[in-house]
Recover the amino acids of this structure.
């Protein structure tokens, strides 16, 4: 069906020619009408400008006189001649401006006709709805893009330079269960009259809102979302906490490595990844560890950090607050204020750093089984409010001053730790090294020294003294609903290898000072991620020992990194890396056919 856009006309002009219109002609239409005959005469422009000038001039004069009377304690009811004249001019100009500009405003509030939730009764929107409905009846939604929509006064999507060039549309994803009412909503979103972010609250149905938003996105961009699933996801579970304005969800395969024998227990480790060889390699490391009796781990520090930055008028005042916060005599009072924010938050320490007259306060606290960023931020805010009473000249610049440091590589995390600090170790028998890992103890020790230690030092690495810790950390984080961005500091790791038992066996360890994980909150409560946590036996909070589930998850992450390091280093030492990736990490599909 070949539809043509008909010229749009202003609603005010259309209504003015209709005696039965619900919208009476507006006095203010002269400000927006394009007809030269309807514009204000120049004399009226001059009068308006003069009255506005008088209004603000006498207002400024009266405020100045009021301030002077307050300073001199003069009575307000005693007025001089200029003051009386100014009052009369103020009253007259106010009445004029209110009569000229205010009548239409109050009239629009009192006499505004009821409107539909999605569109009012103007002729333009009826055309949009009719055309969209006609397109939906004649063709699938993807093909309906070939129908031109009515011309709007503005284009909310495409730049002006692209308007003249027709958009090549793809065959779009056909919506499921779309109704005529959905078509009206989609047309309203496409026209820019209904904000996309408000669909959930207006429709009251998160799945329907995602479908409407998805179809509107396809129509405005002309690009297909075929392949991005819509069905099979609980959109209610992410409302207000995990993702805004969803249009579908991305599928990431989850593989299982293991069993990982760690601290005399076996774990099947879920890893969400699209990198071939990663799960297989980690699985081989788990096998080697299991054949040698398993690995052991220790959580030697557990504390989330938050570091606000404050500023004083002098460096001396900043130093005074530093001494106050770091004094043991004041810690009990500060901790009671901090801990009142949550029954799981327990303040551990406050360490300060000065930069001129700026002070950085690094709070550290335990957070139970939550990762704890929101929890510690609430406690820090309580302390900041308390300190403001004794230090009124303290200017809180930001609740986070990057001395925390969150989602950025930082030496303070590498040295002081953040989240869970874990060390994990295992002794691999020489026979296992030769038969399972296909290399030798001597080759692994030498490669680790030259690659992970010397090579990383030559590169100026910060916390990157390992082969590929971030690979395993990211895969487990995505599978278990952690914050993937915190992979940055959580992957800080130093891998150590040395020959033991007269050089026959290999001692391997990983030390990870800032593993930031939680088993409650955020993405951990989504169905898929919750299932992966349940597989590890760490789903939700541990009521008997708060914090033990998150600490156990941190040890599983470290143990999996140990397995991944062991296997990859063995592949490198044996020269198998390229061969294995060519076999397992390359697609057999014809790329030219896929792209077409």
């Amino acid at each position: 069906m070949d539809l043509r856009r008909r010229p749009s006309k202003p609603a005010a002009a259309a209504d003015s020619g209709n005696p039965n219109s619900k919208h009476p002609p507006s006095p203010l239409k002269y400000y927006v009408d394009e007809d030269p005959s309807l514009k204000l005469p120049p004399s009226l422009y001059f009068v308006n400008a003069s009255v506005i000038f008088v209004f603000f001039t006498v207002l400024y004069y009266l405020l100045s006189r009021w301030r002077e009377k307050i300073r001199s304690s003069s009575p307000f009811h005693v007025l001089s001649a200029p003051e009386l004249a100014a009052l009369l001019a103020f009253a007259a100009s106010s009445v004029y401006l209110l009569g000229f500009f205010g009548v239409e405003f109050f009239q629009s509030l009192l006499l505004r006709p009821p409107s539909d939730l999605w569109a009012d009764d103007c002729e333009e929107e009826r055309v949009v709805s009719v055309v969209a409905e006609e397109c939906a009846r004649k063709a699938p939604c993807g093909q309906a893009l070939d129908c031109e929509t009515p011309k709007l006064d503005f284009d909310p999507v495409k730049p002006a330079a692209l308007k003249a060039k027709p958009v090549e549309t793809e065959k779009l994803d056909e919506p499921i269960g779309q109704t005529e009412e959905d078509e009206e909503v989609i047309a309203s979103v496409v026209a820019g009259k209904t904000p996309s972010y408000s669909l959930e609250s207006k429709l009251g149905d998160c799945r329907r809102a995602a479908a409407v938003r998805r179809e509107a996105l396809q129509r405005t961009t002309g690009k297909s979302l075929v392949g991005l699933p819509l069905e099979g996801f609980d959109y209610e579970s992410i409302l207000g906490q995990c993702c805004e304005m969803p249009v579908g969800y991305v599928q990431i395969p989850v593989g299982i490595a293991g069993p990982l024998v760690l601290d005399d227990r076996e774990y099947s480790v879920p890893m969400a990844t699209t990198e071939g060889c990663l799960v297989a390699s980690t699985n081989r490391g788990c096998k080697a560890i299991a054949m040698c009796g398993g690995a052991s781990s220790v959580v030697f520090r557990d504390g989330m950090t938050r570091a606000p930055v404050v500023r004083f008028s002098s460096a001396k005042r900043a130093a005074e607050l530093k001494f106050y916060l770091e004094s043991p005599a004041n810690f009990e009072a500060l901790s009671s204020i901090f801990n009142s924010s949550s029954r799981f938050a327990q303040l551990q320490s406050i360490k300060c750093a000065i930069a001129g007259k700026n002070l950085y306060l690094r709070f550290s606290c335990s957070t139970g089984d939550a990762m704890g960023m929101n929890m510690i931020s609430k406690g820090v805010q309580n302390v900041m409010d308390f300190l403001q009473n004794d230090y009124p000249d303290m200017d809180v610049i930001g609740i986070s001053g990057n001395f925390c440091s969150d989602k950025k590589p930082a030496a303070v995390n590498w040295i002081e730790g953040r989240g869970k600090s874990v060390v994990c170790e295992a002794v691999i028998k020489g026979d296992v090294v030769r038969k399972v890992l296909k290399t030798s103890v001597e080759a692994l020790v030498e490669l680790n020294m030259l690659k992970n230690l010397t090579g990383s030092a030559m590169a100026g690495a910060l916390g990157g003294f390992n082969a590929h810790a971030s690979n395993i950390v990211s895969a487990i984080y995505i599978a278990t609903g952690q914050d993937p961005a915190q992979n940055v500091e959580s992957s800080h790791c130093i891998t150590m290898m040395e020959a033991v038992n007269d050089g026959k066996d290999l001692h391997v360890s990983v030390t990870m000072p800032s593993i930031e994980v939680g088993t409650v909150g955020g993405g951990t409560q989504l169905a898929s991620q919750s299932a992966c946590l349940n597989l590890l036996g760490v789903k939700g909070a541990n009521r008997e020992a708060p914090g033990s589930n998150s600490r156990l998850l941190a040890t599983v992450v470290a143990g999996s990194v140990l397995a991944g390091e062991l296997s990859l280093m063995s592949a490198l030492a044996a020269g198998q890396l390229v061969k294995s990736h060519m076999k397992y990490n390359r697609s057999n599909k014809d790329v030219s056919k896929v792209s077409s």
Remarks:
- The longest strand covers residues 296-306.
